[in-house]
Amino acid sequence: MFYREKCSLCGECLERCPYLAYSREKAREEFKKLVEGRPTPVTSECITCVACNTFCPEGANPFDLINERQEETGSYPATERAINMMVMAAQMPSQVLEGRRGMPILNLCSVDFIPGVIEGRLFEGLTVTKGGEYFCYIGWVHLGKPSMVRDNARKFVENLAKIASKVGAREVICYHDDCYVMLTVKAKEYGLRLPFKPVHIIEYLLDYVKKHEDEVEELNMSVAYQQPCASRYTLWKDKLLDELFERIGVERVKRRYDRLNAICCGGPMTGMSTIPREKVDEWKMRNVMDAKESGAEAMVFLCPLCALNLRSRAEAQGMEPFMLSNLVRLALNEKLTHGGAGKK
Fold first, then answer.
1. Architecture of the domain made up of 215-331
2. Cα–chain-centroid distance for residue 179?
3. Mean pLDDT by 10 residues, the chain (344 residues)
4. What torsion, rounded to 10 degrees, do the Cα atoms 305, 311, 312, 318 define?
5. What DSSP element (H or E) covers 128?
6. Residue 124, class by beta-carbon neighbours within 10 Å (0-12 exposed, 13-18 middle, 19+ buried)?
7. Cα–Cα 20 to 30 A to 329, which of 11, 29, 246, 266?
């Protein structure tokens, strides 16, 4: 939600955007156009990484305004393929794999496509939900259509609540960062009450490691972390991730493209008809080379889509790709049946 009363029209949000790279004067001018509802190239050039929300010194959420204007003007250049993929996500067959009564639900949304990740004792006893009925719709912001998120929020919450009631679950663990945003940020904006507690996968993994610290063998590994776009909504959990890394003996290397300055994995850019493939590849390699040159032995992903976009490139540069949960499983001496990120 954009907070007009907080916005001072300083332009810092667009000036700091690595993709637009506007001067402060141009940034102010173009954002003023957004506020006033006038045409601006921002709506067609923004790649929807949400970074500007974290750059804003006033907490006005400028991306939310950009996203609304993208939909109002129809100027976001989404490819037909990207739109079809998002439509298909909501149509995927749904599954509920019931676990022990009273245990939390693990919601996989529609992104359960990397094999060998939801395995091992980390997930024993959990009820697992996945497929179209448990798709959170947050991905639609990357296609310039935030109304799809708003219009489907209640249905998403109700579908999860129905299963939570059936299996006696008080918590829903969000495997996908997008789902956590829907349940903690967007649901609040839309005035939706939740009959369960949303738990981020990072919170769950940290809690598990704390309870089983005698089973953990430190990995003594330096890693580069790929922060998902959706994490821009809930940056507070970054401290939990740092603690998790420390507890399993992992050093998060300091690099240019991390934390506040993290950049997109390239997925949303791939879905824009106006950005040449070579330009997308350039940004992907800039990200991977930054990780390598910062001394990382491995590249760690929270989002499955980020992993699909960067894992092969990371591997080609000598960095083992890992989904975060698999890195924790490795510290618990578990065998990874499909490698760190779905490639054996």
1. 3-Layer(aba) Sandwich (3.40)
2. 9
3. 97 97 96 98 98 97 98 98 97 98 98 94 97 98 98 98 98 98 98 98 98 97 97 95 98 97 96 97 98 98 97 97 98 96 79
4. 170
5. strand 127-130
6. exposed
7. 266
